Amino acid sequence: MQRLASILIIIFIFSLFSFQTKAQTVINKIAVFAPLYIDSAFEGNNYKLGNNNLPKNMLPGLEFYNGIMMAVDSLKSEGYSFEINIYDTKSSIENINNVLQKNEMKGVGLIIASFNNRNEIKTLSNYAAINNIPIISATYPNDGGISNNHYFVLLNSTLRTHCKELYKFIQHNYAIGHLVYFTRKGATENFIQSIFSEMSRTTPAIPLKIKTVELTDSFSTKQITDYLDSNKHNTIICGSLDEAFGLRLIKTVNTLKNYRAVLIGMPTWDVLIPDDATVETVYSTPFYYAKNSTLYNAISTKYRQTFNQHATDMLLKGYEAMYYFSHLYFEYGSELMFKHLSENKYNLFNQFNILPNKNTNNNINYYENYKLYFIKKSGSSIKAVN
To answer: If DSSP codes are grouped into helix, strand and coil, which group holds residue 220?
Structure first.
């Protein structure tokens, strides 16, 4: 925790001043926005949390920032010259609105952002569109109601994309057997179910024969087994993003030793599945970080040696977004990079398939990453199956 306090002090310094990677004339300028919550950690210039009191809401933004800075070091070692400004989206003084009003973004050619609030997305993306600046949204919460914005790039695929690809995945891998779709009441649940219904109507292949069951949040084990077949392989689909509902379903299915089953979950299940869950579970994600890869081990080792911390997915997302898109910006410029978003010549862990997301009038809403990985987890085993 002492090291985390030191990291926060470094962030505090960098949030007040931009810096250049070389002392020569700056060619490129990049802005990074992340929820760092500096105000809650400092009173004036004094760190006030102590060594054992770092709030959990600070950790994702802190890890993302650390990943950004590790990528800056990598780019420096490759000889690139650029200026980078770090902004805390939760700052009372240097928040998004104040930064834009003070014209601090003049000359910026690329924006990389980690949002955790839908309202922040609209403000910054509108500015990016007006000023023709690519803005890379690297984390949830997705599109934030963006439309008609040719400069907004969404790496975290939308729920619609996840559900459509999930339907195709089930078609390809689990069409034969007993399929049950468990859901609950709710607007999001209705939206998810509507996508599955749409896919059943429009698929060129044979539609899935799925039994849909609506449950209450306090459903019993018997209410699950009533719809399963002990003589067949059961494909159990969760049609809700509600974490309590999803976790209850996971735990319930894991008690059913007399049923052969696979559990198909939502994209939020990457952090929901308990380590002791043994039933084979599949979920989709645009980000897959193979823990046995050479690059992962190199980054993880360096991070552990520097900060005595384990590398997290947020750290890797920051590193990958900064490294990949900065390279595209340096090579092609802020306008031309859109022709090269899916080249993958600078990819690290993940491949991207970034294409225009279009509305019913065939106009571009924004650019979206349509590449998804399907992760299969059983006990301690985690692997991508596509």
So the answer is: coil
Length reported for the chain:
386
CATH 3.40.50.2300-classified regions of the chain: 2-157+291-371, 159-285
Tokens of 209: 């024969």
Say which residues have a Cβ less than 8 Å from residue 81's Cβ, sequence separation at least 6: 20, 21, 22, 24, 25, 26, 27, 28
Confidence of residue 231 (pLDDT cuts 50, 70, 90): very high
d(CA 225, CA 184): 17
Global pTM reads 0.90
What would the CATH number be for the domain defined by 159-285? 3.40.50.2300
Q: What ranges in the chain are assigned the alpha helix state H?
A: 2-16, 59-77, 96-101, 118-130, 159-174, 187-202, 221-225, 243-253, 294-307, 313-336
pLDDT digits (tens, 9 = 90+) for 324-374: 999 999 999 888 788 899 888 899 999 999 999 998 888 899 999 999 999
Residue 124's contacts (CB-CB under 8 Å, 6 or more residues apart) are 33, 96, 100, 111, 113, 135
Beta partners for residue 368, in sequence order? 154, 355
CATH of domain 2-157+291-371: 3.40.50.2300
User: Could you tell me if residue 50 is left (phi over 0), alpha (psi between -120 and 50 degrees) or otherwise beta?
Assistant: left
